[in-house]
Amino acid sequence: MPSTKLEKDDEDDEGLFAEPELQLAYNSVRLYIAAIQRLYEEQKSRNVNPAPRPQGVALKALKKSILAVVWARKRREYTDRLEGTIKDSYSKAQIPQHHAAAWQTVGNTSCLLRTQVDFLLGNHMLLRQSNRRPMELPDCFRLELPNEGQKSAEFPTYALVIVMNQGKTNQHGRIEYGAALRHRDVRSCLVGALACYFFWRWQAEGVEAFPTFARSEDWYDVKVLPRSAKQPQQQLSPQTANTWTAKLYQACGIKTSKVSHAPRVAAAQNADMDGVPEGQVSFKAVCYYLAFSYMQVLILGN
């Protein structure tokens, strides 16, 4: 009799976590819950909803069951278990390989060079794709560093600086900076990649006219990563960016489940393995780069 009861309990548990016909991703459920809770908080602040907060045992059980179903399905389908782990990234040695793929792949040269710049912006400055795609020419400038490099008036050291006042974690116009120095390896250099892309875009390709810079309205809307040469003021779509990024990943042997987010993750991991203190492996630490020494900036960009 006790054995029969235990078997019945096991069957009940299997029924509780049985895979439904409609598969709903866990992250989708989290987004729905966040939207409902935000609506509830707004209604509560206006005193129009006296109900308790929509966060109870049933909701927790739903999220738990979805996670259990997803875990069981991944086990059944033999999904790569390194996905989402520290190995789901790329190493520093693969950055020059990405450069080689961008220059050797036969195809749209402008898109290949643009994708390389997009990749290095994420790797060197830890920028999200939502920060990289809207970037415009007036957001970029150079800053002289008189106490770095050769410390010579004839050969000054400059940093490439990007100004950002809008993003996922910056909704109120706070000024933030991203910066990069010239890399010791030209294949991993963001400054060099950006220069080559601009040269191709305005001198070699011959489709987009060089900005006049006579008036602000002549160049303030020009994107650093435009949709196309014929649409220099149109923002690159995330679908197009991800397609070209995945193509170069495949060409250079980078295997990761993260497409647009991989440079941020890999750069932080590589910096950590190089001994950069944990407090400096962050976007804000890169933004306020003037607090770094020259070698620390090279490590983040290495």
List its traits.
two-stranded antiparallel sheet; 2 domains; 48% helix; globular; mainly alpha; 302 residues; 12 helices; disordered C terminus; hpI Integrase, Chain A
Distance between the termini: 67 Å
- State the helicity in percent bands: 40-55%
What is the highest CATH level, the class of the largest domain?
Answer: Mainly Alpha
Corresponding CATH superfamily of the largest domain: Centromere DNA-binding protein complex CBF3 subunit, domain 2
Largest sheet: spatial strand order: 1-2-3
β-sheet strand percentage? 5-15%
Give the helices and strands as they follow along the chain: HHHHHHEEEHHEEHHHH
- Calculate Rg over CA atoms: 24 Å
Mean pLDDT: 81
Uncertain residue segments: 1-17, 283-302
Question: Could you state the oligomeric state of the chains shown?
Answer: single chain
Helical stretch tally: 12
Judging from the principal axes of the Cα atoms, what is the shape?
globular
CATH topology of the largest domain: hpI Integrase, Chain A
The CATH architecture assignment of the largest domain turns out to be Orthogonal Bundle
Major sheet size, sense and barrel closure: 3 strands, antiparallel
Account of the 3D structure:
The protein is mainly alpha-helical and 302 residues long. The chain has two domains: 2-76, no CATH class; 94-301, hpI Integrase, Chain A, CATH 1.10.443. Helices cover 48% and strands 8% of the residues. The strands form two sheets. It has a three-stranded antiparallel β-sheet.
List the helices and strands and how they pair.
Elements: H1 2-16, H2 26-45, H3 57-76, H4 94-104, H5 109-125, H6 129-132, E1 140-144, E2 158-164, E3 176-180, H7 190-204, H8 216-219, E4 226-228, E5 231-235, H9 238-252, H10 262-273, H11 283-287, H12 294-301
Antiparallel strand pairs: 1-2, 2-3, 4-5
Helix pairs in contact: 4-5, 4-9, 5-7, 5-9, 5-10
